[in-house]
Amino acid sequence: MTTTAATRPSPTVRTARVLGAVLLSMAGIFWALAVVAVVIATLVVWRVNGSADVSIAVYARQAATWFPFSLGIMLVGAYLRVHIASGMTRRTFVRAALLVEVAAGVGYAAVFTALVLLERAVHDALGWESVITEIQLADESASTGAMLLELSVTFVVANLSGLLVGAVYLRFGAWVGTLTLPLTVGPLVLLLYIPGARYVDLPGIWTTTAAGHLALAVGVGVVLAAAMAAVFAAVVERLQLAPAP
Length: 245
Fold this sequence. Notes:
Radius of gyration: 21 Å
Order of helices and strands: HHHHHHHHH
Distance between the termini: 53 Å
Helix content: over 70%
Strand content: under 5%
Number of strands: 0
Structural class: mainly alpha
Oligomer: single chain
């Protein structure tokens, strides 16, 4: 008689489940509050102006960028020391953290896009417009895929930037962590405001077509994400943690 031993998930998968559960619970709270805020703001604008001809939901983009960014810092500060004390490797933490943060970025982008589309449907039913005034490439005329792609890249970069900030603070201390913020957060700020370049009258496809703008932003975002992931891995794998007081 043969018995089949139950296969246990890898350390990376187990760690990813723990980190993912934390991010998922926080995401639920965030999006519940965001929906309530959008509804209240829309009602206020309607009462004041008689209609809401701009997208209110799109203004959640900044919060949906910086809130997960702060969670990335928290994951490193709160869980890395416990992870290592449990006898698990730094490399396992790096892999799990990168996995869940990339997934979280895409997830936030999907929820955000769905919220904007739902708001647009409500506005259409009421005879309102849904003009997007936030600085981003995907305006009200852009396809769903274009909006999802742009937001996914932006949110993933934000999450990886948070991980990197947390790792640098943990390894080098407050002074170095603060002085290097232009390097650890600067790429995210750059990506957020690349869309503003579409208002600059420069020659070439990159600055004169919607597809060119999107390709430029996505390309820059992918390069930045890869660079930050590599630096995060290098910092964490060389991290020496002092005993907790």
